[in-house]
Amino acid sequence: MPNNRYFVLYKPFGILSQFSGEEDTLKKVANFPSEVYPVGRLDKDSEGLLLITDDKSLNHYLLDPKFGHLRSYLAQVEGIPTEEAIRHLQSGTEINVDGKMYKTKKAFAKILTELPLLPDRNPPIRYRKSVPDSWIQLTLTEGKNRQVRKMTAAVGFPTLRLVRWSMENLTIEGFASGEVREFEKEEIYRMLKIKTNRFEKGVNLDSGKTFSRPSVKRKK
Question: Is the model's pTM score more than 0.85?
Answer without folding.
Answer: yes
